[in-house]
Design the sequence.
């Protein structure tokens, strides 16, 4: 992509309304723009990151045997009256009347709707277990939306739902999602710690939040120091095997959100206790028959008996992750994207656009990298070097490849790693080889 | 994917509410389920097709130099008051009040919002032209939703917007989209004929609808016979070149929707006139300054003068295309997917699940095809052959690979082409080679 054509409205000044670093940087890097309180448009750079994150979430859900479908944003109120949550949910639920005065709502979550689909289609124990998910925009009408996409009103969420014959089956599904979540966040360069959590309006008695430690976190969390330093999963997972040992490796150490925190543990752990601010990026629930019972999600068992299915639900805040990753990966110059979610792999900087030699070398690098499926943002603008470097640091691509008139005469370019700041003068071919590596 | 695990609730009976073949087949093939009038959940099979179509649309937009972003579903009413469309739009617009009693709406289209983004960020003629698109769920509160996803209330649309300095530039953008649309639909196995069209609530004076001829079409259309038989574009397009000659090749022959039909042409064309029912799958508009004027989308020209930008918008009904493709590709047994949008490439039928030899051969084929990235749906269910064949024909995968006890003894399997109905007995290795082609 040529930067001269790319729709990338970066800002030099920090917008006054942004209180936390991810919000500031997302605005300055031209990733998002607010259209009304807590509702954002994702400009091309932000959209690319959002899609990368969504794809990692999708791949790990698929790997865990979860099947993707897509439920609509607008739901009928009747379903929520059946579960008893229509009144419970309060003003956070965006209630709508359609032209025929029917009560509708913009889904804040989908337990009711997925249970409705299930009860109409699944009738026999032989069709279980089922593990289904979708990635869809949700709406929660926060009274005071803030922190950019971290606490917006319209947000993208991945939510999965499990259906099992008994509690043991439901716990197997829970463990699959637990492990899939560890892998998902690790792939994005995040240390997300599973912590015992309150179940809130979803309900149930077993729940973990996946929490990133960050000063700007919305809530206080507590955990054993070893969890912070724990090495995350790189291994390949067999999702058909018993995953309890992996789950136990994490849950045997103390970790709890504020609501679940046990003060006696604090005393017991002493120096081993970490007390910090945390950002929630995922939340998983086992809630048994809370929805299947009132909605009548019942299958026939092997002996003809009726079995009310055991359910769980599992959410990841996809759009929120964009902000959370920035909170975890930035410096005072801007964002530092982990390679797995970077909008482009390489930022190619032509220090003297219009100079025949620079244009030729940079154009050639751009063509060769692009032909090899390396995503390159080529700054071909007629701008000062300082502006180009500042923009590149701000948008945080993992590699910067700098073509300048002096280097070009010597057949050299500079390769800079955004994260380490390390710079190397390399022959053009060597730089290319390194990036094609 | 193992069919025994796949969430695929096929139906033997035709649901009474479905009036047209695509709606009937989408319900019977377990692709969608209605959650309320005109609002559907996409089950895994339908979701896969939807994603394939979306991806073709995306690739052709990108190839034409259009940049993807994503605007939210919920928009502020003020923007629509600025353009004057808030009252115009009538009851089809889903109007919403949020918890602070602010007027919001679920976007039926995005001219206002994209113009708002543009006017805040683009200030100089040097930043033009711009061609931006998004693929997002829209809502139009149809008084009588029907025909399944063909006329739903919540639907997925790709909408692009062009911004140019003058009419000539806007026509260049229009032509890019015109050609990109021809390619997009051709890749899906559709003959979509561009026809002079009315501009309706979008406005402007140049517009084409892309129409598929089908008996179940919603409107009457008229065109020169040669357009129906015209060979569609296979060639590579240089979107920087002058595309007017390609556009002219299509527009010099008569083609018009009912609203634009000129009865004198009917007489002139005589036998060459085709009068048929048509399904709209795309609609493109040039509307000049209709939105940029009231919203003040103005850039500074080379001499410091203010230039109100010239705009166009370009829509493709992504979810509607799923239905339209079925209308064009089916027989009395079910759907016949073009390979480019098929949810799986191959349906592998094990005629005797539980038989050691059949299980081994089928399992081996499944593993080898999957390892080579061929998407296979493996019917490993304990069901009668008749049920398996009927389901495979219904869901319409391009190839059926049948493993039966008699064939297996002779080292043979049967390969059936869903479209032609042609069957071939082949050695296992030959069948594999054919599908890995």
Sequence:
């Amino acid at each position: 992509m040529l930067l001269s054509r790319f729709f990338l409205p970066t800002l030099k000044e920090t917008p006054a309304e942004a209180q936390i670093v991810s919000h500031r940087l997302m605005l300055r890097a031209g990733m998002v723009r607010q259209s009304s309180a807590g509702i954002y448009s994702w400009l091309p750079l932000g959209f690319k990151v959002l899609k990368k994150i969504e794809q990692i979430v999708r791949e790990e859900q698929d790997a865990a045997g979860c099947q993707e479908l897509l439920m609509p944003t607008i739901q009928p109120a009747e379903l929520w009256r059946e579960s008893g949550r229509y009144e419970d949910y309060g003003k956070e639920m965006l209630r709508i009347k359609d032209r025929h005065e029917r009560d509708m709502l913009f889904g804040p979550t989908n337990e009711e709707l997925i249970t409705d689909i299930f009860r109409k289609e699944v009738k026999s124990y032989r069709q279980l277990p089922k593990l289904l998910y979708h990635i869809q925009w949700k709406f929660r009408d926060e009274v005071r939306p803030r922190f950019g996409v971290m606490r917006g009103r319209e947000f993208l969420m991945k939510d999965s739902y499990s259906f099992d014959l008994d509690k043991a089956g439901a716990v197997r599904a829970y463990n699959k999602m637990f492990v899939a979540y560890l892998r998902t966040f690790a792939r994005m360069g995040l240390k997300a710690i599973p912590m015992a959590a309150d179940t809130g309006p979803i309900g149930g008695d077993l729940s973990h939040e996946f929490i990133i430690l960050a000063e700007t976190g919305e809530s206080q969390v507590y955990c054993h120091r070893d969890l912070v330093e724990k090495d995350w999963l790189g291994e390949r997972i067999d999702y058909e095997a018993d995953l309890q040992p992996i789950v136990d490796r994490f849950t045997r150490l103390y970790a709890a959100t504020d609501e679940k925190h046990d003060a006696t543990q604090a005393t017991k752990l002493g120096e081993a206790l970490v007390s910090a601010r945390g950002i929630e990026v995922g939340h998983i629930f086992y809630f048994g028959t809370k929805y299947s019972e009132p909605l009548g999600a019942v299958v026939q068992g092997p002996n003809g008996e009726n079995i009310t299915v055991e359910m769980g639900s599992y959410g990841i805040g996809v759009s929120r992750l964009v902000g959370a990753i920035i909170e975890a990966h930035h410096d005072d110059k801007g964002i530092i994207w982990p390679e797995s979610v970077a909008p482009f792999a390489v930022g190619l900087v032509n220090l003297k656009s219009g100079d025949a030699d620079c244009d030729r070398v940079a154009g050639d690098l751009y063509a060769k990298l692009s032909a090899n499926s390396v995503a390159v943002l080529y700054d071909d603008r007629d701008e000062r070097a300082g502006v180009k470097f500042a923009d590149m640091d701000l948008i945080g691509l993992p590699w910067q490849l700098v073509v300048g008139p002096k280097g070009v005469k010597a057949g050299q370019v500079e390769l800079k790693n955004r994260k380490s700041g390390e710079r190397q003068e390399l022959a053009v071919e060597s730089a290319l080889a390194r990036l094609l590596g």
